[in-house]
Amino acid sequence: KWRIVVSYDGTRFSGWQYQPDFPTVQGLIEDALTKLTRYTREELLMAAASRTDAGVHALGQVAHFHSPACIGDLSRIHRGLNGTLPHEIRVREISPAKSSFHAQACARTKRYQYKLFVAPVMDPLLRLYAYHVPERLDVAAMAEACGYFVGKHDFSTFSNSSTLRPLQNPVREILRFDLLEQASGPVLCFEIEGTGFFHKQIRNMVGLIVAIGKGEHEARVIPELLAMKDRQKLARVSITAPSRGLTLVSVHYDQSDLDLPENLLCRK
Known about the structure:
Elements: E1 2-8, H1 25-37, H2 41-44, E2 47-48, E3 57-65, H3 74-84, E4 89-96, E5 109-118, E6 131-133, H4 139-149, E7 151-154, E8 171-181, E9 187-194, H5 201-213, H6 221-228, H7 231-235, E10 246-252, H8 255-258
Parallel strand pairs: 3-10, 5-6
Antiparallel strand pairs: 1-3, 1-4, 2-3, 5-9, 5-10, 7-8, 8-9
């Protein structure tokens, strides 16, 4: 089993997870690995810590894959992957992993950033990486709103789960939800770290916080909406923030999960 750390610009991809008819980050990495190793997608059994949506970016996505035999020269595979993949995707690290390691199941916390560009005219260099908000925002009210999300909550209201795939456990813990202002320009950055996030959860939270910043609601609406446990109630008061502002920054594991396997031997 092998662990990889991947960065990507998600603009032109249909998210991380493999889809046979659309370009995805997983699909392109598997295609590259198949060319380099001659193993099939079914043999590789790749899985990632986060199945990022279409248009979402990553600095430190973590994934793992299998190989029927040990790969002796990881540096060759590493160079080959980055030489084969499109320029928007880069494998930053590749290393052996314990048989018990699972990129998603072993993850302890995940850290995301969401960027807003708050000015009447959008910076064209940031158009693919930030949500343009032309209106003035009440930053103090937004910072207060962020605090209501910290802690353990039932996030049913902020999850885009379907009736066909309802949430088995809607409780997650957010350890940090900070709003940072950049002194050099009109960029606001949310820093969010938690034990896990549901489909579009962060974008739904940001969408509501932006509505609060515009004066459409007060920050205390958040505990009220959390208590309702109803996604439709949220849809009536705010939109889902666009994917382009969201970046998966890093995934954190216990060191014991990252330690190299003992007695690693490569079969010739």
